[in-house]
Model the fold of this input.
Amino acid sequence: MPGEPPPLTPDCGSCAGLCCVALPFAKSADFAASKPAGTPCTHLAADFRCEIHEHLRPSGWTGCTVFDCHGAGQHLTQHTFGGRDWRTEPALRAPMFRAFPVLLHLHELLRYLTEAAERAPKSLHEDTEAARARVAALTTSTPDALAAVDVAAERARANPALTRVSEAVRATLPGPRPDHRGAALLGARLRGADLRAASLRGALLIGADLRGADLRGADVTGADFRGADLRGADVRGALFLLPGQLKAARTDLATRLSPAGA
Done:
């Protein structure tokens, strides 16, 4: 059905290893080596699997363990290119590698909009659903059309709907609702902080101590939680929290999460 979203969770077995080829890596704390876009990672096996998947973190490839394509990889491989791949058909390398980063961003945006449509109050549902349907339709584009999509413009177009839903949902929640949008909170001492219904959109929380903090209903769109300590924290109901953000942080069995699918 037109406008219906594609699956938004990764299925690596149905992908042609696109994240390991199309995207560039820069040697850093997240990646043990650098590689340019369009060059296969040296650890990519013939079956498009990672040869060191079970040893990524100790081998210095933490960035790979937190990466999430939101289903863009298998969608591009199986639907956009009909199950064909760049190894058996080298002519597909350029169009696949051009389209993948764009589809990756669209799938992430679609994930946000899908959640927004589910959580929007009745007064905002129609506009939010329209924004979601527009991005869902873009994901069905041809390779050339995908490569031509202006991702920044699409994000700007969707952002008002996401912001309105965030504000409406958080306005109904108890809590101080502090505004930390874009804040530089690297290494911040926020242990036990009351961040209920806060705006943490784009906040840099790298290495922050958030042990036991209350982030229920907080908007964490794009917040950087790399190395943040979320042990014992309560993130139930957090808005736009992606799996990769949790994987990048330190959690434990006392970290309170929303039930799957909630």
In short: The CA atoms of residues 82 and 197 lie 43 Å apart. Helices lie at 62-66, 72-80, 93-119, 122-138, 143-147, 151-171, 243-248.
